[in-house]
Design brief:
Elements (H helix, E strand, L loop, with lengths): L8 E2 L2 E2 H29 L13 H17 L1 H12 L1 H21 L2 H28 L4 H32 L2 H20 L33 H26 L8 H25 L6 H24 L5 H8 L4 E2 L1 H33 L4 H26 L4 E2 L7 H19 L6 H23 L14 H14 L1
Antiparallel strand pairs: 1-2, 3-4
């Protein structure tokens, strides 16, 4: 099917893939850069050279949980809005600039703008995240080629996360929180502008939809039986979900461990389990009660639900990287290195950073050579951004090498996930091709086991810390091992 696409290719793939690659890279740069700072900023003492807000850890982690949950939830609605109204391209642009505004608001560091910034990030992510991934899929008709495209796209995600955590985290902890949030702002704007000025090469991909975006072909046009229309089913299962949510809430109040509701964060956290359970059952009932659904379709949805339940446990553990594991790195890990240890860390950090930058710059040059005449302004913006990034990287490394000692930033450990993903992704790909393990449930089980093993190393390393201790000096090896096995589990 002719989609009026620009025909140039980069590394055997449509050049449009690499425009999406860099757009997603800058968005992940901003998202993970901010995430690396969020809990640290909230829990850092009000006193000192770089004061934070001095929150209790439980309050900071509660807010982090609410924010992360909503970030994962809003793409459901962002996808619907793009399918029915905006189209993918416009949704991505609006989402990108909304997130840029969110990062800017957070850089102001006042409570009003801080919460306004988080709200903008949640809403912007809902429009951006599902729709840019959908555009990748629309570039291909060949499923095998599409798999390779998503692998490349995923590398962009991890490259952005690596650089965002490294640079925003370093600047936020070493120079000032506002500068870290501000850096995320700059490159979110860069990503949005670069994508916006490249729209001409996408042809019909991601344009405003001409229908409701739902593929109804082959579905029976017969009228459902009385009482089974969408509106009646929505009403029925909404009532079921609400009743269940209320019941779970009061049972938790009576028999549960209790939640501190002395603050707004605590009050929200006390409602969250009941709301999640009620919404899950309501949505599940609505889907499975569809009168035109076949037996095969309902069986597949049940399989999806089972996988989803296990996925919840995986990400519940994995997302501790921005929460409790960040606290552990900041307060309980020995991060002050001297002598040979400090020099080794500086060399490794320099090699990782410059190596990642060199590979991404090489991809940029390839894209530049193919598409400059078509989207010159987009490429110029992207090139200027890379000059800025290289300047920040070289400044950071020079600053670090000029010091005799090194304090590893607490946010630095989060970059290990992206590094391990990039390092081991090709090995896992080759392993899956050997077809030794083909079962989806077994892969899920292995993923959960590896994440659990990572926490086992962390628990062993922390076993000597007295209960209630506010600080400790555990070897950083345990965090490195935890991130290694978590990344293997993700793969």
């Amino acid at each position: 099917m002719d989609k009026n696409l620009f025909k140039g290719t980069v590394l055997g793939h449509p050049s449009q893939l690499f425009v999406l690659f860099f757009t997603e890279m800058w968005e992940r740069f901003s998202y993970y850069g901010m995430r690396a700072l969020l809990v640290l900023f909230l829990t850092t003492s009000l006193m000192g050279e770089n004061p934070g807000w001095g929150w209790e850890r439980s309050e900071a982690l509660g807010l982090y949980g609410i924010y992360t949950g909503l970030v994962y939830f809003t793409p459901l609605f962002g996808g619907m809005i793009a399918d029915k109204l905006l189209g993918y391209r416009i949704a991505v642009i609006i989402g990108g600039f909304t997130m840029a505004a969110g990062h800017l608001f957070m850089a102001i560091e006042t409570p009003f703008f801080f919460y306004l910034g988080l709200t903008a990030l949640i809403l912007g992510n809902g429009l951006f995240k599902p729709n840019i991934s959908s555009m990748v899929g629309q570039l291909y008709d060949d499923p095998e080629k599409k798999d390779g495209a998503y692998t490349i796209f995923y590398m962009g995600i991890n490259a952005g996360a690596f650089l965002g955590i490294l640079l925003c985290g370093y600047i936020g902890e070493s120079i000032g929180w506002s500068y870290g949030f501000g850096l995320a702002t700059i490159f979110m704007i860069v990503g949005s502008l670069q994508f916006m000025f490249a729209k001409s090469i996408f042809g019909d991909i991601g344009s405003v939809p001409t229908d409701d975006g739902i593929a109804d072909t082959g579905v029976s046009d017969s009228i459902p039986a009385k009482g089974t229309s969408s509106s009646s089913r929505i009403s029925k299962w909404a009532i079921v979900g609400i009743i269940l949510a209320i019941g779970v809430y009061f049972l938790n109040k009576i028999y549960g461990p209790g939640v501190d509701v002395s603050s707004a964060i605590g009050q929200i956290n006390s409602f969250m389990p009941s709301l999640i359970i009620g919404a899950f059952v309501g949505i599940l009932g609505f889907i499975l009660s569809d009168p035109v659904m076949t037996k095969i379709e309902s069986d597949r949805i049940i399989v999806i639900i089972v996988f989803t339940l296990f996925t919840i446990f995986f990400w519940w553990a994995f997302e501790q990287a921005g929460g409790s594991m960040t606290v552990f790195a900041n307060d309980y890990t020995e991060r002050n290195l001297v002598g040979g240890q400090a020099l080794t860390f500086k060399i490794v950090n320099a090699l990782l950073t410059c190596g990642a930058m060199a590979v991404i710059t090489w991809v940029l040059i390839k894209l530049f050579n193919v598409t400059f005449k078509e989207i010159s302004l987009s490429n110029i913006i992207l090139s200027i951004a890379f000059v800025i990034i290289w300047g920040i990287v070289l400044w950071m490394l020079k600053r670090e090498f000029s010091s005799d000692t090194t304090e590893v930033p607490a946010s630095w450990f989060s970059v290990l996930n992206s590094f391990f993903i990039i390092t081991f992704a090709s090995l896992f790909s080759k392993f899956w091709e050997m077809k030794i393990i083909t079962s989806g449930p077994i892969k899920f089980a292995l993923g959960l086991f590896l994440v659990g093993l990572g926490f086992a190393f962390l628990a062993y390393g922390a076993s000597g810390i007295p209960q209630g201790a506010k600080t400790a000096s555990v070897s950083l090896l345990w965090l490195v091992l935890a991130y290694l096995f978590h990344s293997l589990g993700e793969l």
